[in-house]
Amino acid sequence: MSKLAVLDDLLERYYQLHYHQQPDLLRRLQDVQAWQKTRMQRTHAKQFAEKQNILMSEYFLNRLYGGPDFDALADQIARLTKYAHKAEKLIPDNAIKTGTSGVELAILAVQLDEEVAMQLLQDFHPYEALTDDMMRDTYLKLDQGEARLKQLALLDQLGVSLDKYMRSFMVQAAFKMCKGAANKYNFNVMYDFMQDGFLAMKPLKSAEKFVLDFTKVERQIIEKVHSGDPQPFQ
Fold it and tell me: In this protein, which residues make up the domain named DUF8198 (predicted)?
């Protein structure tokens, strides 16, 4: 069985999301994603501002939490799986596994935020500006606590994999060798997705530590939301 087969399942999940066919839902989803990014920037301002963390924080916000070009990335991944036998000869196994984890996280983030967007459309005017109170109430109504904790657990695993597998000279050399082929066969969006990850890791002593510092605070927020704290995002 192809090591890239799991990507087919992930892409099927992604293409089944409702917002692809519902413009109103897409607009509200984008509102939710913008609120999420603003909230994370505020919550993690000190961590994100540290010089060595700037690139990784941007990667989190713009890649793992709903990047604007994810549709194009998904299309390129779908094409890649059709040539799995060739791709697997070029891409190291651990790089495939780590890249797949990043894609899974990005899709899960969109999936969870779409649920929030759908609930907001039911409960509020579609153009009403989002507030912390609206988001807290919606999280509680959806009871996403366990799903959000799963998201953070996957993120912790990704941090470990980044340190363990993606810092090796062989992996980075193999990746650089693929650049010409990526441009030639129009896989540039996917290549950039991975390249941004490599660049974000470079200033860090440990990607795992960066992730653990981030997820520790996010778990505290989830606990506050579900314990009834009236201002969990402060």
Answer: 17-232
